Each structure stands twice: as structure tokens, then as C-alpha cells.
Amino acid sequence: MTSILVTRAWPKEAEDRLQAEGLGDVTLRDPDTPMSHDEWMAAAQTYDVIMPTVSDKIPAGFYPAAKGKVRVMANYGVGFNHIDIDAARDNGIAVTNTPEVLTDCTADLAMGLMLAAARRIGEGERETRAGKWIGWRPTHMIGKKVSGATLGIIGFGRIGQAMARRAHYGFGMKVVFQDAWAVPDDIKAANGNATQLGSMQEVAANCDFLSLHCPGGADTYKMINASVFDAMRPGAILVNSARGDVVDEDALFAALDSGHLAAAGLDVYHNEPALDPRFLQYENLVLAPHLGSATDGTRAAMGHRAIDNLKAFLAGDAPQDLVT
Ligand code: DGY
């Protein structure tokens, strides 16, 4: 019988369906904590299917050890930078992910971070809760106007496009973006009448808010570095709901220290959840704990999508979200 491991707790609806599908012997791992190195190495010899997720730290030795045993890693999540895709392929392990179902919620969260950072909502809440608010006054907690400003987007895939629509149609923002692929005119027109620029630096120089929507991993590692921060307009704001390793955090802190960067709204970090303690020193950072897809319907839909992919794979069909 096919043995299936789910590495972290899913919404009950999705777990129930996985068990009811009769795809194999399902292990819902308990406790809901990251698997240790030794657990991963044991899993390599034990399971035919592993259903991992973004917070898993998979040791390099897992892939060769899993060769001939693990057939597929049906990832719960769209991002798969926690999986070594080349090593999986080299060791005969298929990988799937769960795009589309979390696009709207992630773009919603990015809008929320942008608004919160621009309008100092976190600072304001802290002041109010601390009983330090002394009342309305014309100069109190002045932020940055979002409506009508220019949004720069790095990565114009599904989530970047959803962000562009929200910003343009909801807030009257002009949208500029950078992406490695030449985006066809009809897609630009349908997604906030956005303008593609040639480089990240060019986008940074031409926007008031810069929002990241590219994948993480080796290709984008520390891509938002000093040269991008330096190119930004003074007083610009950064939003990151993509992956922490896309941003050079030393360069981020330097831009905040100089005042060139007015604020940032962040959902993701290097080495999360072990944040660099410097993050906590800045009032002008809005810090969310990787909540992009965290709504009830979306988290269940991610499970359903992972199950759909696994069902197709086990039936010998091509899963709709085959990564490798
Ligand atoms: C993903 O699916 O990659 C997200 O980061 C989880 O919210």
C-alpha cells in the first residue's frame, strides 16, 4: 500500500479528504513542528509520498537516501524553494505545488502591508494600546499617501498581477514592474494598465512603493540589495510577501538607518521564524508572521490542490501542477 506522510497539520477539511480518498496509508504527523534531520532521513526510507510545506528544512542527504523509495513530493504551497528541485529530479522524485488558490489572499495581504506601513497603522496601534495617545492633532503620525501614488512590482506572475489590479483599480495607482519575461500587451492592459521597465533599479527609481512577488531560491537570492535600495525614491516603502531571502537584510537596515527607505511591510524573512533581532528595533517596520495565504478557505484549498496533484500522479496522469 502507498505510504503517505503529511509533514505539518493541515485544515481538518483537507486532512479528512486525504484520508477518505483511499490513496494509501496516510500518516498525519503529530506534533505540528518542523521535522528534525533524523526524521527526514528516516522518512526517506519509509514513505512513497511526502507532502511537505514551506517551513520544512529538508536536508541535502534526504534526496539520495529517498531514491527508489519516495516517488513524489506533493507540496502544500505555491513556493517550493525549500525543495531542492535538481536533487529531486536527479533522484527520480516528482514535485508538485499549489498555485492559483492563494493568489488573491497573498495579494490582499500585500495590500494590507502596504497600507499599514504607509499609514503607520502598527505604530498607531502600539501607541493606542500603550495608553500614550494624547488626542487628534494636525501633526500627529503623518504617513504617506497611497491613493494615486506609483506602485513598482518585482515579479509579474499571478500574485504580482493581482497586486497590480488591486492597486490600480482600488487605489488609482500607476503600476510599473520588472520581470524576466516580456509580458504581452494584453496582460499588461488587463492588470492595471501596467508598464514594464527594463531593470529592478529602473522600477525602484520610478515608484513610491516597491512590492516583491518573485519566487525565492538561488536565482533571486538577495536580489533586492544596496543597488536597488539606493535607486529607490527617497521616502519609498518596501513590501515583501514573497520570500525573505530575496532581500539583503543588511542593505534593508542600512536604507532604514539612512532614512532613504521610509518604512517596510514584511511577511517573510531570512531564517524565519528566527528573525534577526534588528527587525524589532524599528517602529517603521510592519512585521507579519508569513500570513500571505492564511485564510480558512485558502488553506483548505491548498490541501485540496495538493491532493488533486497526488491523485493524478498516483493514477499515472500528469498532475496539473507538476514542477519536475
Ligand atoms: C506558499 O504557498 O509558498 C506561501 O508562502 C505559503 O503562504
UniProtKB/TrEMBL annotation:
GO terms for molecular function: glyoxylate reductase (NADPH) activity; hydroxypyruvate reductase [NAD(P)H] activity; NAD binding. InterPro entries: D-isomer_2-hydroxyacid_DH (IPR050223), D-isomer_2_OHA_DH_cat_dom (IPR006139), D-isomer_DH_CS (IPR029753), D-isomer_DH_NAD-bd (IPR006140), NAD(P)-bd_dom_sf (IPR036291). Residues 111-292 form the D-isomer specific 2-hydroxyacid dehydrogenase NAD-binding domain. Pfam families: 2-Hacid_dh, 2-Hacid_dh_C. Keywords: NAD, Oxidoreductase. GO terms for cellular component: cytosol. Transmembrane segments: none annotated. Residues 4-323 form the D-isomer specific 2-hydroxyacid dehydrogenase catalytic domain. Belongs to the D-isomer specific 2-hydroxyacid dehydrogenase family. This is D-glycerate dehydrogenase.
